[in-house]
């Protein structure tokens, strides 16, 4: 198999996760599998309880805010124990599918993929496929995003908040542990400009600039993002808002593209437009069905 389900005694927080058994290029298919459960109505879910038990997917142990909410939601069911089990497996392991992403699908192997805000793979829950969106080396952890496209564009704090509330973990990916790349822009000197007291300041050449064009574009982009994440838009409108966000961010403020993948030891931080391209637009083109 091209991916292996493994665990690492030195990194217990990863749980059981996916590791690439060979190298992959963007667009490569790592895995295709049938779902354990494709959920349209809750009544159907209970019938899948046995299959879900056998798969032994992740469910947090002990008390937690999500588990308490799920407990309340299942308390009046005929078989509350089974209902709670199934709901919690779905809550922590499913991917959105169907025309509007409202169906939930649970896969035995894909469910093991951990989240990263800079994922190296993309899941298509309708097809049951896992494809590379960046080059993956042999032995590397295979990651996907639990956040949607708009979610990946949010700043570190908002991403962490959403992941904590929904999935109850603290993301420690490269994007979450370095300076907020959604507010970092490249300078003509090759350094990185960061917002500082309403102005932009380059960390390398220390040049300070007004950056008003950028801040304005950023504000517009933030509004589009908010609209895209409002939850009451059709998929098409969400896409439209995201494109608006992309166009707003594409206002020419960076004269030099930043290497997103990073060279050697140093991980270069992208400017927002590069970030947007790297996260979404680029890889959708490279993926063949
Ligand atoms: Zn992260
Ligand atoms: Zn500079």
UniProtKB/TrEMBL annotation:
Any Pfam family hit: SET
Superkingdom of origin: Eukaryota
Ranges of residues in domain SET: 15-146
Naturally occurring in which organism (per UniProt): Durusdinium trenchii
InterPro entries in UniProt: H3K4_H4K5_MeTrfase, SET_dom, SET_dom_sf, TPR-like_helical_dom_sf
Protein name, as recorded: SET domain-containing protein
